[in-house]
């Protein structure tokens, strides 16, 4: 059975944006500079020694790691109004936990979710670190992929915080 809902992702959430991750940029820059310093400016008295080869290899590996960090990991997803970083969490529910799941969904505002009782269900949740934003979706494991049971739901401020408390209590 094909679902009419789109699977939740970072790109679907209008309240999320990509922002520079200062710690990643700092770590990448320091690692790059340390590697270049080690490879270029530090010298060993005997250029044919194994220590010199180790210094060169370590320097270029550090410089490469720093460059990769700066090029491929300088940004992260943040909740736009507060600038708080957003992370993904998932919670699996077995068949014996379905009453607790239905109760949690009803408290959130999803009243009549058609959950098939023969396979596991999980909730995907994108939550900001300051607990002011939550995007949730209930999915059911299928044969080849997950089937969304609900549209993406967005909770803000106090409702988001109370949902996250219930979500972490279930985990």
Describe the structure.
The protein is an alpha+beta fold and 171 residues long. The protein folds into two domains: 19-77; 82-170, no CATH class. Helix content is 40%, strand content 26%. It contains four helices and seven strands. Strands 1, 2, 3, 4, 5, 6 and 7 form a seven-stranded antiparallel sheet that branches. A hairpin with a 4-residue loop joins β5 (133-141) and β6 (146-148).
Overall shape: it is elongated
Q: What about the largest sheet?
A: 7 strands, antiparallel
Q: How many beta-strand elements? A: 7
Mean pLDDT: 83
Strand content: 25-35%
Helix content: 25-40%
- Compute the number of structural domains: 2
- Could you give the order of the helices and strands? EHHEEHEEEEH
What is the C-alpha radius of gyration, as a whole number of Å? Answer: 23 Å
Structure classification: alpha+beta
Unreliable spans are: none
What's the end-to-end separation, in Å? Answer: 29 Å
Number of helices: 4
């Amino acid at each position: 059975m094909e679902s009419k809902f789109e699977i939740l992702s970072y790109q679907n959430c209008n309240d999320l944006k990509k922002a520079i991750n200062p710690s990643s940029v700092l770590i990448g820059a320091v690692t790059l500079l340390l590697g270049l310093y080690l490879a270029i400016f530090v010298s060993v008295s005997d250029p044919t020694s194994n220590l010199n080869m180790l210094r060169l290899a370590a320097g270029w590996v550090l410089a490469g790691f720093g460059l990769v960090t700066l090029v491929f990991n300088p940004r992260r997803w943040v909740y736009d109004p507060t600038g708080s970083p957003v992370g993904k969490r998932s919670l699996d529910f077995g068949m014996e936990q379905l009453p607790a799941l239905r109760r949690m969904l009803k408290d959130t505002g999803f009243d009549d979710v058609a959950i098939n009782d023969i396979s596991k269900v999980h909730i995907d949740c994108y939550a900001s670190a300051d607990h002011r934003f939550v995007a949730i979706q209930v999915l059911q494991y299928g044969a080849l992929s997950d089937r969304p049971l609900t549209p993406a739901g967005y909770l803000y401020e106090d409702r988001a915080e109370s949902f996250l408390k219930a979500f972490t209590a279930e985990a």
